[in-house]
Each structure stands twice: as C-alpha cells, then as structure tokens.
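Please go through the protein record below and see whether the fold suits the sequence. Record follows.
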Amino acid sequence: MRVLFLTKYHVRRDATIEVFGALSHHLRAFGVEVTVYSSDASAAEGPLPGGTQCVHGPLPKPAFFSLPFAALRIASWCRNNGVDLIHAHGLYRGGWAAREVTKRTGLPYVVTSHGDIAMTSSRMHRPDVRRRCGLILKDASAVTHLSAAMAEMANQFADVRAKSCIITNGLDLTVWGTPNPSPAEGYVLAIGRLVAQKGFGTLLEAVARLKRQGCGPSVVIAGQGPEQEALEKQAGELGLSVCRRPEELPRDGGAVCFPGYVSGDLKQKVYAGSRVVAFPSRGAEAFGLVLVEAMAAGRAVVASDLPAVRETVTEGRNGLIVPAEDPAAWADAIQKLLSDDALRGQMARTNREDVARYNWRSIAGQYADLYRRVLAESKGGGARLPNH
C-alpha cells in the first residue's frame, strides 16, 4: 500500500520528525510505504532519517487561486506513483488540499489535525474557515485525533464521531534506552517553541519566587522562537542570571539557561541533566510530546491543567497538574517534587512503565489497520466528491 502524507509543516523538527520520519519508518513493517509531500522547504533536503522519501511542492491556502493548479500537480504525482490513499496531516490547509486531490483522483483521504483548529487561532473564528473545516471533515473517509480534546474541537465543525478515532503521537523508544537517575543538583527542564502560548513566562516567575524563598532551582528552557528576547529580559528583571549552556548554570540555582533548539543526542543530554520536566503551556494543546519524552527519560513532570495534558498525566501518579498562569501554584508544585526524592522517584518509575503505550510500532499498527479499512470501504477508489 502506498500512502501520501500531505502537509504544510516543517518535516525535520521535534514532533514532526517523529510523525513523518519515525511513523513512516514503522509503517513499512505493516506493508505501508509512505512519501511525504510538504510545502515547507525542509522537504527538499532529501529523505528523512529512516529513508522516507519527501516531495517539496506548493500547498496554497484554501482561498488562493493557485490551489487548483497545485491540486492537479499532486493528483498527477499520485497517479504516476501508484498512491492508494492520502493522509492529510493538518486539517485546514492539508485537509483542503487532500479534498481537492480526491475530487480529481477518487482516492480516499484520512485527515489528522495537529492542533491547527484550536480556537486560540483568530483564523478559526472566521465563518469561511469554519465552513471549510466542516467540509473537510464531512468528506474525509476517516478522521483521527491526537487526543480526546482534539476530537471535541473537530466535532464543533462536523459530527465525525462515526468515522473518527483517537491515535496519539508516539516516540521511537529504541533511541532512548535506560534512563539515568535524576541528578542531585539537576535543573527544571522545559522544551518547546519560544512563543507566548507555551507559558514559559509563568515558569520564570515561579522559579524567581522560589529563589526569593531561598530554595530556587535553575531552569533550562530549550527551543527557539520570537519570544526569546522577551523571556531573557523577563529573567533579568526577576533577578535570574542568564546563560546559554546548561553546564554554566550555578550550583546554587536561581538561573535560567536558553540553549536554543535541541534534538537527537543533545536533547537526551538535557533531559538526563534534569530533575523535573515542566510543561507550562497556557493554550490549547493537541498533544504533549514533551510529556512523553519526559516519560521516556524517566522524569517526573509538572504540567498545566489542560484537557490534552490530563490524557497523559495523572495527578499524583506520574506528575503534578497545576493551573496554567499561576506562578504560586507552579512554585509550590516544583518545590514539592524537588524536596521529595521518594515521590519523584516513584513518578519516574511509573512514567517509564507507562511510556510503552506511545511506542511508534504500536501506533503504526493502528494506522495501518485504519488505512486498510478505509481502502476496503472505498471499494477500489470510491466516488468522486461533489463540488460544494
């Protein structure tokens, strides 16, 4: 079976390299060969780790006049390369393009939102966008959600409960190995894009509060984004020293490190140096890959009280859940974990046991079963979609 992943996303970063690289690799074991088509320039850099082929081409926004030409190009590529099914990663742009290609080829399409329909985006309040999202969901052969929270969001646009299922993102656990115990003088680690939605400002306020109480840990915030300068300024105003390398953090705490984007061995190294992992997001999250990475690394977590978080973290069992944007609550939760070695150790062990359910091989099997069911129901191609 040949499947085309259709997306606008960068295909070589964090969660996306897991989805497009690791998932594609593990799907081969189930007889599914994937090609990734992306409008992001990263798709032009050659095959992904694991050998998945990429195609770089246009994927205009739904309202752009050039979309029909792009759809014709993708449809031609599908015919020439024997594609059996399209899987749109990203509901709005990817899903609309998949729908247009299906009109021209009769191929069934599956759609997965990676958070692009969250109502935190002003775009999602526009009637024309909401109408298109409804059509994409209505005409899809199947819909998958990364979490129950995303399923609830999707059902605001169209009732797809009869043809939808929850399939989470995963992790290639073979590269994580056996985690090291958390170090006695480790830091609090947070990883993510440096944008306001991720709530790193709240984490800085919590650490500064602990410093004023005489027990402030250091924190590492790994990632890139437009908020870096503002976060560094905030750290200085809160009395936290700033550095660029985790090894430069003072032993007595009360500092913040911004090492930039981390991946591969470097990412595992920063996890190994941590005592606690923080997920202070303040907005709608489709899925928390950082939480799963913390599980694989054998670390206890403190996370914002969000619907998607509660699907991964159970309060008191493998982490602590606190209100988003509440520095006092964050400070209390961080201090509770740092001061209680037994609780932190128990949560770390639980996370290592629970992470097995996020193994990409298991998740790839779920997708392969879904693809085969969709193809069987389409009876070799199915009907062409109407023009709405």
